[in-house]
Amino acid sequence: MKRMVCLGLVAILCLALIPFSAMAEETIKVGVIMDLTGPNSEWGSAQAWGVEHACEEYNANGGINGYMLEPIVMDCASDAQTAVTAYRQLVDEYEVNVIIGPAISNNVIPMAPLAEEDQICVVGHFQDDRCTANEETGETWKYMFLTQPSSSQQGKLLADYDGEGFTRITNEELLELPVDVLVPAALENQITEKNAPNVRAKYIVEGANGPLTPEADEILDKMGVVVVPDILANAGGVVVSYFEWVQNLQSFRWEEDYVNDMLERTMVHAFDEVWEIAHEKGASLRMGAYISALKRVVGAKKLRGIFP
């Protein structure tokens, strides 16, 4: 189920490709074509739920650039022709801005040339290369976007996108843009002593594990850049994993709202504690996190006494 939600979230991110200035209404219409009935209904229904849930989350937080998301879900019934019919209805009748799905590649293949002609972005986890590249010419379809980690094409389609209004920059240039907040959230050791002096962000939030080297961390600290360390910034997943472990021990299931509430309390408390220690000691947030961790270890050791 988590994968379904993630699919919805990743797909919604591709809405950034939509030129908002071209939209007449204050709503982003998200077409969803999934196998709600037929042999693949369990798979398709889960993905449709993921997209709807993602839209709800975005709308609850103000939408995207002030635009609310309106999911319009249609059933392709595990049939390619039905998928094409649903596509035409979404584009011609509902005038959607983007389409997510279908779940099965065979139902997507006949939609690819239509999306190219209509200039409608179609996002999915297609496993067949014919969904994302013209079978006759081998050229990549410009409006078919892939979110399938196991595919050989993953990672190159968005990078190859050459639509109007886009400027290509390298990963190195991205890290040195004049931004308020920089979130390196993929690989470790991306900011080093070589490029740290060129970083112009005011705040860096480590979404990945160890995206800054120790040398870069020291340089940025002297530059006055506030770095929220990985041990604090990306700990949410580990916290919820702990909650899952507790639920398993209790043979009891918590409601989603309760899990989110407990997660927020835990993360806010941890951040407040680290922030207070860092300011009290005149140290960085990373050092504040280390001090907090060591205090807990020492405190636990004292309570346990001589026993291991």
Supply the key terms.
single chain, 308 residues, alpha/beta, 3-stranded parallel β-sheet, disordered N terminus
The count of β-strands is 8
Report how far apart the termini are. Answer: 40 Å
Structural class by secondary-structure content: alpha/beta
> In sequence order, what are the helices and strands, one letter per element?
HEHEHEHHEEHEEHEHHHH
- What proportion strand? 5-15%
Describe the largest sheet. Answer: 5 strands, parallel
Rounded average pLDDT: 85
Shape: globular
Uncertain runs are: 1-16
Task: Walk me through the structure.
The protein has 308 residues and is of the alpha/beta class. Helix content is 44%, strand content 11%. It has helices spanning 2-13, 41-60, 80-93, 105-108, 112-118, 171-175, 214-223, 230-233, 236-250, 256-281, 285-304, and strands spanning 27-34, 68-75, 98-100, 121-124, 144-146, 181-182, 203-205, 226-228. The strands form two sheets. The chain has a five-stranded parallel sheet with strand order 2-1-3-4-5, sandwiched between helices. Strands 6-7-8 form a three-stranded parallel sheet. Helix 7 links the parallel strand 7 (203-205) and strand 8. The longest helix is centred in the C-terminal third of the chain and has 26 residues, at 256-281. The protein starts with a helix and ends with a helix. The model is unreliable at 1-16 (pLDDT under 50).
Q: How would you summarize this macromolecular structure in one to three sentences?
A:
With 308 residues, the chain is an alpha/beta fold. The protein has helices spanning 2-13, 41-60, 80-93, 105-108, 112-118, 171-175, 214-223, 230-233, 236-250, 256-281, 285-304; strands at residues 27-34, 68-75, 98-100, 121-124, 144-146, 181-182, 203-205, 226-228.
